[in-house]
C-alpha cells in the first residue's frame, strides 16, 4: 500500500495564463515553479496553497495525447501524484502485486523529480503518478 502524502494534483488547461491569473489572483495561490518539459510535451506550472501544490499542464502540441485528453474542456483533472521515498522500489512492489504500469522504470519529471505513472486500468480509472523529490 502506498502510504504517502499527495505531492500534487495536475490539471490540463487550455489557457495557461488565464488559469494562473485565477489561481494567483482571487484564489490566493502563489507561484512555486514554471518550466517546460519537452520530453513530456507540456509546460508545467506549480501553484502553492499552504503545503499543497496544484500543477497546471499546458500541452505544447495541440495534437498531443494530453491535449486530446482535455478535449474541448477549458480544464480537466489529469492525475494525482503521491510522494514516495523510492519510486523504483514502489514500481517493483506494485508490478509484483499485479498493477499495470505505464512506466516500467522511473524517469525524470518536473524540477528534477523522479517519477513513474501507474496505468488507470489498474487503478480504478485514475491516473496515478509516483513522485520522488529531487
Lay out the secondary structure.
Blueprint: E1 6-13, H1 16-24, E2 30-37, E3 42-49, E4 52-59, H2 65-70, E5 75-83, H3 87-96, E6 107-108, E7 114-118, E8 128-132
What does this structure look like?
- The chain is of the alpha+beta class.
- The protein has a single domain (6-132), classed as Roll (2,3-Dihydroxybiphenyl 1,2-Dioxygenase, domain 1), CATH 3.10.180.
- 19% of the residues lie in helices and 40% in strands.
- The protein has three helices and eight strands; from the N terminus they run βαβββαβαβββ.
- Strands 2-3-4-1-5-8-7-6 form an eight-stranded mixed beta sheet.
- The longest helix is centred in the C-terminal third of the chain and has 10 residues, at 87-96.
- The chain starts with 5 loop residues before the first strand and ends with a strand.
- The model has no long low-confidence stretch (mean pLDDT 93).
Amino acid at each position: 500500500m502506498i502510504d504517502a502524502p499527495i505531492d500534487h494534483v495536475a490539471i490540463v488547461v487550455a489557457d495557461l495564463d488565464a488559469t494562473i491569473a485565477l489561481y494567483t489572483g482571487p484564489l490566493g495561490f502563489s507561484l512555486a515553479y514554471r518550466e517546460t518539459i519537452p520530453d513530456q510535451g507540456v509546460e508545467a506550472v506549480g501553484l502553492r496553497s499552504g503545503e499543497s501544490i496544484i500543477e497546471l499542464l499546458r500541452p505544447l502540441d495541440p495534437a498531443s495525447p494530453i491535449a486530446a485528453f482535455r478535449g474541448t474542456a477549458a480544464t480537466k483533472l489529469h492525475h494525482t501524484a503521491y510522494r514516495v521515498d523510492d519510486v523504483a522500489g514502489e514500481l517493483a512492489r506494485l508490478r509484483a502485486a499485479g498493477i499495470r504500469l505505464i512506466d516500467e522504470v522511473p524517469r525524470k519529471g518536473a524540477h528534477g523529480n523522479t517519477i513513474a505513472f501507474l496505468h488507470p486500468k489498474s487503478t480504478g480509472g485514475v491516473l496515478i503518478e509516483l513522485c520522488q523529490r529531487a
